[in-house]
Write a structure and sequence with these properties.
Keywords: Phosphopantetheine, Phosphoprotein. The chain is built from 15 helices and 26 strands. It has 510 residues and is of the alpha/beta class.
């Protein structure tokens, strides 16, 4: 019986122990060696935390073989991994750690100095100081511990933007990842021979899914170095060199590749599955990819982090005009998606409303944050007979005449930008309350240009470069506004509050 993801990995090791599991530049590791090192690391973890299970353990490493060993080692220890972005300002990392209170942080020589300034040294493990070849482990002890882990126990925590400046830690379990993985395999007929071009950062749920595919099928993960992001042609050359057959990317880089016409310069004959999610893929650039890779299957997926990976999908099997939005399709297996109007009634065809989700794909809530959990995960208003939790996404959508779900936008200040989910109010909170750069301001997202614009009240203009420099000490790069716009007075509604909707109408003027 499959009760956790390591059941997948154990079966794969028996079947293909010497197959390459991960390619990281010139370095590779087999499935057997990956598991051996992860089990040894789990023993080190166990020694440090005295057998504690079902608790978060943080990983503060760049994306390499060592970070994958760390994540799997944490799972072997019976705990949940929480990958942290090494590029995130240390103040934000500190906020995350204070909220989540991980039992340990796994890092290396490169980052140990940064962490010891903000976290107790006894709760930090420097893997560069551990010689795993000298560590012994007991398989029976590992088995005893894993027998206590069931499918609804936490697998990982993924941090997402929070309106108060403190990210929320979304708790995702083994069952929801296994459900999605099995659905993916059957829907797209993914084989045991896939080679995955892994571009997503460790903090993305897509990376965790790639980990699942590796463990479940014995697929090989090819790590795309982060430094190649500025050189899309080199990314394609790497895919070509390693015969990558499957990618699951945020569209941003795919749009750049289309705009630069790079698929005419680098052929990808092995690429058969192209999945994308995280933000809207402009149809014109999507059509470029589809024409260039005529033998590939393209799937558009949708879902906030509170739903494990994604909850809807659209297999692009019909022609779409350049000005026609790509549908987000239909619900994935074992998931129900429905659209509610302002009266919490089901919307009719072409009627816009809020997209809601129910099913085992739902996250378990926000770690150490019952108030935020209660606000987002609520009783299904369509069901008065028994407890049934749904997640209200805050996204506006409709169902068209073809029974396809069409994404229309956000109902509040939550956006998707460069694949990251961002609370615009968090940007405002940091600029106004934390840094006190201005007294009043409002962040607005320009969906056409995919840029964050910050409007602020001031008699004197403030240098955009100086604003970015100061904000960059607190917020990650992807949350720093692209444009700063000074207004003598921000528009207000009848209640005296900043009129965000009026600013949205101005967004194309700047």
């Amino acid at each position: 019986m499959i009760t956790n993801l390591l059941n997948y990995l154990n079966d794969t090791i028996k079947r293909v122990p010497n197959k390459v599991a991960v390619i990281d530049g010139d370095s590779t590791i087999s499935f057997n060696d990956l598991a051996e090192k992860a089990k040894k690391l789990s023993t080190v973890i166990d020694t440090k935390i005295s057998g504690i299970i079902r608790k978060p353990i943080a990983v503060f490493l760049d994306k390499h073989i060592e970070s994958i060993i760390s994540d799997i080692g944490i799972i072997y220890s019976g705990n949940a991994y929480m990958n942290l972005d090494t590029k995130t300002p240390i103040r934000r990392i500190c906020n995350i750690l204070e909220l989540i209170q991980p039992e340990l942080i796994i890092t290396n020589d490169k980052y140990i100095g940064k962490l010891t300034e903000i976290w107790p040294e006894k709760k930090i493990v420097n893997i560069d100081l551990i010689d795993l070849s000298t560590v012994n482990y007991s398989q029976s002890k590992i088995d005893i511990k894993l027998n206590k882990i069931i499918d609804t126990d936490p697998l990982c925590i993924i941090n997402t933007s929070g309106s108060t400046g403190v990210p929320k830690g979304v708790v995702l379990n083994h069952r929801s990842f296994m459900d999605f993985t099995e659905w993916a395999i059957s829907t797209a007929e993914i084989s045991q021979n896939e080679i995955i071009g892994s571009l997503s950062p460790l903090v993305f749920d897509i990376y965790s899914f790639e980990l699942c595919m590796m463990m479940r099928l014995g697929n090989t993960i090819v790590i795309v170095p982060e430094e190649l992001s500025a050189f899309p042609v080199r990314i394609l050359q790497l895919l070509q060199k390693e015969n990558v057959s499957y990618i699951f990317w945020v569209p941003t880089i795919m749009v750049n590749i289309a705009n630069m016409d790079l698929l005419s310069k680098v052929s990808l004959p092995c690429l058969k599955s192209v999945w994308f999610a995280g933000e809207v893929f402009p149809t014109m650039q999507f059509n470029y990819w589809r024409k260039a890779l005529v033998n590939a299957q393209f799937i558009n997926l949708y879902g906030p982090i509170e739903i494990t990976l994604d909850c809807t999908y659209y297999i692009a099997d019909r022609t779409l005009s350049d000005n026609e939005p790509i549908p987000i399709g239909i619900a994935c297996n074992n998931t129900d998606v429905f659209i509610l109007n302002a009266e919490d009634k089901l919307c009719g065809t072409n009627e816009e409303g809020e997209l809601c989700v129910r099913g085992t794909s739902l996250a378990m809530g926000y770690y150490n944050n019952p108030e935020k959990t209660a606000l987002a995960f609520v009783q299904n208003p369509l069901n008065k007979s028994y407890p049934e939790i749904i997640y209200r996404t805050g996204d506006i959508a409709l169902i068209n005449e073809k029974d396809e779900i069409i994404f229309k936008g956000r109902k509040d200040s939550l956006i998707k930008h460069s694949g990251y989910r961002i609370e615009l109010t968090e940007i405002e909170h940091v600029i106004i309350n934390t840094l006190k750069l201005v007294k009043n301001g409002c962040a607005v997202y320009d969906y056409n240009e995919k840029r964050i614009k910050f409007y602020y009240e001031s008699e004197v203009a403030i240098s955009a470069s100086s604003m970015r420099k100061v904000i960059g000490e607190v917020l990650p790069k992807y949350m720093i506004p692209n444009i700063f716009i000074q207004l003598k007075e921000l528009p207000r509604n009848t209640n005296g509050k900043i009129d965000r909707f009026s600013l949205k109408e101005l967004v194309n003027e700047y």
